[in-house]
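ARCHIVE RECORD
Type: protein–small molecule complex
Small molecule: iron/sulfur cluster
Source of inputs: curated submission
Record status: active
Notes field left blank by submitter.
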Amino acid sequence: MNLSKSKYCQGVQCLKILWLDKNMPEIKQDTVKDSVLDTGSEVGELARNLFGRHINISFQIDLSKMIEETKKVIDENENVIITEASFSYQNHFCSVDILKKNGNSYEIYEVKSSTKVEDIYLEDISYQVYVLRKCGYSITKASIVYLNSDYERVGDLELDKLFKIEDVTKIAFSKQKEVEDKIESIEKIMKKKEEPDIPIGMYCVEPYDCPFFSYCTRNLPEKNVFQIRNMRNSSKFSFYEKGIFKYEDLLKEDINEKYKEQIEYELFDKKDKIEVEDIKTFLDGLTYPLYFLDFETYQQAIPMYDYIKPYMQIPFQYSLHYIEKEGGKLKHKEFLAKEGIDPRRLLAEQLVKDIPLGVCTLAYNMRFEKSVIKNLAGLYKDLEKPLMDIHDNMQDLMIPFKDRKYYNRKMQGSFSIKYVLPALFPNDPSLDYHNLEDVHNGSEAMATFANLVNLEEEERNHLRYRLLKYCELDTYAMVKIWQKLLEVSESEEK
Ligand code: SF4
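STRUCTURE (tokenized, with ligand):
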């Protein structure tokens, strides 16, 4: 089989992706995380129940067996719902997530774990309509099934509210000529021996980050426009298309001061920028006792507990370092929820015990911590007062870095703690996330916690310990950053 739904969509994004994937698969870089794939299949399986009784065509390596089985079910049933119904026309294969047969007419439902209908989904379903029509089936409806971000679970899951269905029949029908042309282009390019000459463009990052981007930009200088932090992709490609991609050339352009600063620091190896007065003003706004808080959260595409919406941030862990008075000892508290239960109530109760009323709490990028606390306060009215007290007294340790009051070239234009920390402490192994085991970043923490429920006790305990160590490092890193700010502000005073 030559083509599938996903390959067709890759071809729509850029024909060269398919060619490289076939001829040079070893240079591909991972861009899709396993947890994302898992979410997709979980949502797909649940959506099948929207349609009641159905017959599933199980996956087989030999796709022709799936096609034969599909034909048999279709032939034997006047009206039937089939999941993973599989078809092929001239080696262009597709499995339909949900196919509804009503006599001689057929409806296609493509399930997505997203909360909106992306343009690329229309390409996907148009390809399915094309294959089925070419196989001789009369398609009367094509729809996308996706998650309703406004749905909040209360009691049993209500599938008809959790999912939305958008009828895209007209669009899919109007794209049939485009599909035919695209398939022709794909076939042509796949026959080529030599690598297709396709320049980079916005399609390298939309709708998905291309796994071959490093390869296709390998001839650019090491420092180039694609490394400018926070510049819009459209601006980056616009500069690139005008031949302006070297740092030296970008400096001559009318660009934002922060982009210029990033370039100048990296090109000219400038000394650290430390605006002492502003740093002092920031530090003067902090009072003892001083708390350093960091949450870990995870998301569920399908809400498992009450008062949760699809993809809502659910806190399951926090780390809290604190210093009671100037020159006082650094102390630590932490919370990690038991797996398999709604973690929020116990976490909120523990949090308000651990942080006294009226104290200053620092977070790094506090918008996130504040939104988590506000959600908890909205949910548990009896804890609203102490939770909102933490919320209202929170300060953001990111500010001096976001405002570039403290900057050096190693931050590479970023104010994220994952850049700021190694830039301030380049040779401190105790602050190096690479030296942690199993859990090194927020995504891994999220996936690890979500999977704990499936593990044997020994492994579960080991990973719980690793989660604690990871989160502890997050707030310890904040303490070190705060101390560094104190140090640079004091050294200037002497
Ligand atoms: S990086 Fe861009 S040009 Fe290269 S294969 Fe990917 S999408 Fe195509």
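CURATOR ANNOTATION: The chain has a mean pLDDT of 95.
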